[in-house]
Design brief:
Pfam families: DJ-1_PfpI (PF01965), HTH_18 (PF12833). The protein is α/β, with parallel strands linked by helices. The chain has helices spanning about 15-30, 85-95, 105-115, 130-135, 160-175, 175-185, 200-205, 210-220, 230-235, 240-250, 255-275, 280-285, 290-300, 305-315; strands spanning about 1-5, 35-40, 45-50, 55, 60, 70-75, 100-105, 120, 140, 145-150, 155. It folds into 2 domains: about 1-185, 3-Layer(aba) Sandwich (Rossmann fold); about 200-315, Homeodomain-like (Arc Repressor Mutant, subunit A, Orthogonal Bundle), CATH 1.10.10.60.
């Protein structure tokens, strides 16, 4: 039996709470006796979430019950922008006693204020990564992944990534079959790889204001294997290559080449995770031309060759009995 304690506070983000709770509860329903889930506020009184829902806790953090859970979950929300000193003090005292510390979204701010992320690699919602790094230079803040595991500390990005992290923890605790059953019930992916970017290439870049440039962005996304040189894209936008390159960067925040690189890498990752296509076939489909060109792009960006990436992140088939 693993105890899971979820900390509640005023203006908490409701999905940061209910997402992981639904995952852990799904595991308990699937395999009774595996998790005991409780929620608690400092004084045991109900709290109002940022969306207006009222959550009634099981007990108070200060009543002495459950101060050393197996998994301590700290959700995020508007309430983390003005952390209550008493809550931070409780986390500072009792957080180190948990076997596993987990934050969802800006819950990482509370863990940081309590000194529990010092010396760790961590992430949070993309909009607050710079603030977390600026306010707490002793933390190695990684703004890209949807979740980060560093020892017994696990931090996740915005909102729904808490579900991905919870599924990964259940898979670690109880195996893939249980996590897969929960994911199917919740109608979500088994788990997105933790190092999957918070933003897709399309979201990471700003949407161009001018229609020809927006059309080019869409074309790149839909045709990663085509000729995507600046000259070719400029002709599609009916601009000179020099004018196109300047306008594209000004309106999207990245160069055409950088945008193409991100789209191709993202497409290749999806094919490696979701298809049985070979590396050579995928490299052609994504515009790399050769497996070696794709390998260099993967090693440079992800630190792993395509074959190794597939071994790490493509779900293995469940054993048959």
């Amino acid at each position: 039996m693993r105890s899971v304690l979820v900390v509640l506070f005023d203006d908490v983000q409701s999905l940061d709470v209910t997402g992981p709770v639904e995952v852990f509860n799904g595991a308990e329903l699937h395999r009774p006796g595996t998790y005991r889930i409780r929620t608690a506020t400092l004084d045991g009184t109900p709290v109002r979430t940022s969306s207006g829902l009222t959550l009634v806790p099981d007990h108070a953090l200060t009543d002495g019950r459950g101060t050393a859970p197996h998994t301590l979950v700290v959700p995020g929300g508007q309430g983390t922008r003005r952390p209550a000193p008493d809550l931070v003090a409780w986390l500072r005292e009792h957080g180190p006693r948990a076997e596993r510390l987990v934050s969802v979204c800006t819950g990482a701010i509370l863990l940081a204020e309590a000194g529990l992320l010092d010396g760790h690699r961590a992430t949070t919602h993309w909009a607050y990564c710079d603030k977390l790094a600026r306010d707490h230079p002793e933390i190695e803040v990684d703004p890209d992944p949807i979740y980060v595991r560093d020892g017994n500390v696990a931090t996740s990005a915005g909102v729904t990534s808490g579900i991905d992290l919870a599924l990964a923890l259940v898979e670690e605790d109880l195996g893939r079959d249980t996590a897969l059953s929960i994911a199917r019930h919740l109608v979500v992916f088994l788990r997105r790889p933790g190092n999957q970017a918070q933003f897709s290439a399309q979201l990471a870049a700003q949407t161009a204001r001018r229609e020809p440039l927006r059309e080019v962005q869409q074309w790149i996304t839909e045709h990663p294997g085509d000729d995507l040189t600046v000259e070719s894209l400029a002709a599609r936008a009916r601009l000179s290559p020099r004018h196109f390159a300047r306008a594209f960067q000004a309106e999207t925040g990245m160069t055409p080449g950088r945008y193409v690189d991100r789209v191709r890498l993202e497409h290749a990752r999806r094919l490696l995770e979701d298809s049985a296509d070979g590396v050579e076939e995928i490299s052609r489909a994504c515009g790399y031309g050769t497996p070696e060109a794709m390998r260099r792009a993967f090693v440079r960006t992800l630190g792993a060759a395509p074959a190794e990436y597939r071994r790490r992140f493509r779900p293995a088939p469940s054993p048959t009995h």
